[in-house]
Design goal:
Number of helices: 14
Distance between the termini: 44 Å
Largest sheet: 4 strands, parallel
Strand order of the largest sheet: 2-1-3-4
Bound molecules: 1,3-dihydroxyacetonephosphate, iron/sulfur cluster
Number of strands: 12
Helix content: 40-55%
Structural class: alpha/beta
Length: about 300
Amino acid sequence: MNSSQIIEKIHQLKRERNAVILVHNYQIGEVQDIADYIGDSLGLSVTASKTDADVIVFCGVHFMAETASILSPDKIVLMPDINAGCPMADMITVNALQALKTKHPKAKVVSYVNTTAEVKAESDICCTSSNAIKVVESLKDAEEIIFVPDKYLSHYVSTRTNRNIIPWNGYCPTHVKILPEDILRQKEAYPEAKVIVHPECTPSVIQLADEVLSTSGMCKYAKSSDANETIIGTEIGILYRLSKENPGKKFYPASENAICPNMKLTTLEKVLWSLEDMKYEVKVPEDIQVRAKRAVDKMIGMF
Ligand code: 13P
Ligand code: SF4
């Protein structure tokens, strides 16, 4: 089958199964092109919570599909490749979080959406890269705030808020590959360009940026800003969407090394097989799902 035949079959099966395809901004171009909705973690969570489809095919990584299942436990949530994980999400375990909570009994817990359902279930509220500052600021009475697992996101939030944050030592192995010297080199090559970076980048990269944005924040910025050239400090899959939506503008990756291998596991063929065989289902046990939903709903309810 060639790719247009695969796409036709996907559309046909989507109708038969009453399915919707949700796609993260880092997915490969041809998967982005079959999306019913493409977005960042927050946008995908909100869409998953509102859809009236029976089946959600989630093209992203495991914590994202799990969040969709937490929000819509009665729907069938499928991942085309079940091996697409997020190494950062695996850097905090529920046991480690429980130990941290015992050490800081008065602290409120904010968990980045890049966490397992078990960790979310132990949290007061979730956040994403687009709302982390607002979520932390909303915890007005908290003397201390445990923020897991991303030490760079929590550092960024602590520089923009006046709160006592207890970080965890997690990080994104893809974003740490973007180095300050990469930004400086690209700025020298494209002196007119603006620099936008993701808050998972290291503080020394963030310092060099004009804006710090979630992936969908970057897409909005690209459309609305006057800049004709922009250096992009995040996973390079997003450049496909940026260039497609803004044909007159130029986008340069801060580093060609910023590739998330897990985000590249999903292909058109695997999306088709997923709909054909109704695999691989992601389902969260009810006791965890109910507690995790509280933390995710609290975040969604804020916006
Ligand atoms: P966004 O929510 O900004 O899309 O980020 C998700 C992610 O995994 C970034 O590495
Ligand atoms: Fe996880 Fe980083 Fe990949 Fe995002 S880019 S899914 S944080 S490993």
